[in-house]
Design goal:
The protein is mostly helical. The protein has 2 domains: about 50 residues; about 160 residues, Orthogonal Bundle (MetI-like fold). It has 13 helices and 2 strands; from the N terminus they run H-H-H-E-E-H-H-H-H-H-H-H-H-H-H. It has a two-stranded antiparallel ribbon with strand order 1-2. A hairpin with a 2-residue loop joins strand 1 and strand 2. Helix 4 crosses helix 10 and helix 7 packs antiparallel against helix 10. The radius of gyration is 28 Å and the shape is flat. The termini are far apart. About 25% of the residues are buried.
Length: about 280
């Protein structure tokens, strides 16, 4: 009996030790995650708080904890005067953001207009060379953009589309369209063909079946494609920073890296806050 009791006591102790070890491991893992979040969030929080401080509170010693918040730095950074944007040449980045939104929006619209019928054709129709054409469409997106920079420059300069919205949208289509087509192919292929066959029995044409049956069913895929196309056009940096297109400069990254003098520290902090919001 005494030996059995010792064995049972040892098992209880071993279970408790194992339980405490698991608990300590979880606590340590959570502590590491909290520390990582603090390390990541502290600079972001400091930048956000500093952007609302008045000029005197930013450079106060010791640092001012209690202060009256102000939007002066954001108004100057965005170039807002009297409730409207002023010209970007005066130092405001608001007009640049608006122009970038126009380029990204038109790129998204043009991508969907061309990618939806192409994705439907590759995903639903059967014709000779379908897989080869689909692979070639994706293959055109494999080339690094830096190798296409000089051809883009000469082509846009020759057709007089340099420094225009149409020229930049056309350039963006070369890398957003192949990705959008392949993304839509997967959505169109997953839809059951019985839907189109049932509509065809009722005498509907292929376009009617596509417009009224297939396209609404693939609405989620179209929305995802639109979001990805907009984000890719919005976050693109290389082409719009190298091509001499003032209409394409987007704040704050390309504007702050375009060789212009750096703005004062309060406005730089506000620009970083705006850049963090637009990147997120």
């Amino acid at each position: 009996m005494g030996g059995r009791r010792e064995v049972s006591i040892d098992r209880v102790i071993a279970r408790r030790v194992s339980r405490w070890r698991r608990h300590a491991g979880r606590v340590a893992a959570h502590a590491v995650l909290v520390a990582a979040m603090v390390v990541w969030a502290l600079p972001v929080a400091w930048t956000a708080v500093t952007s609302f401080k008045p000029h005197q509170a930013i450079f106060a010693t010791p640092p001012a904890i209690v202060f009256a918040p102000t939007l002066e730095h954001y108004s100057r950074t965005l170039g807002i005067r009297a409730g409207r944007f002023i010209e970007s040449t005066s130092g405001g980045i608001g007009p640049s953001i608006a122009k970038s939104a126009v380029v990204a929006t038109w790129t998204t619209v043009a991508t969907l207009v061309l990618a939806i019928p192409a994705g439907y054709a590759f995903g639903r129709l059967r014709f000779r060379g379908r897989k080869s054409f689909a692979f070639y469409t994706l293959f055109t997106n494999i080339a690094p953009p830096i190798r296409l920079l000089i051809p883009y420059f000469f082509v846009l300069n020759r057709i007089r589309l340099m420094d225009t919205y149409l020229g930049l949208v056309t350039v963006y289509l070369t890398f957003s369209l192949p990705f959008a087509i392949w993304l839509l192919i997967t959505y169109f292929e997953e839809l059951p063909r019985e839907l189109e066959e049932a509509v065809a029995v009722d005498g509907a044409s292929r376009f009617t079946a596509f417009w009224r049956i297939v396209l609404p069913q693939a609405g989620g895929g179209v929305a995802v494609t639109a979001v990805f196309s907009f984000i890719n056009a919005w976050n693109e940096f290389l082409l719009r920073s190298c091509l001499p297109a003032e209409t394409a400069i987007r704040a704050p990254d390309t504007r702050l890296s375009s060789g212009r003098p750096c703005p004062p520290f309060p406005r730089s902090v506000a620009a970083c806050s705006v850049g963090s919001l637009e990147r997120s």
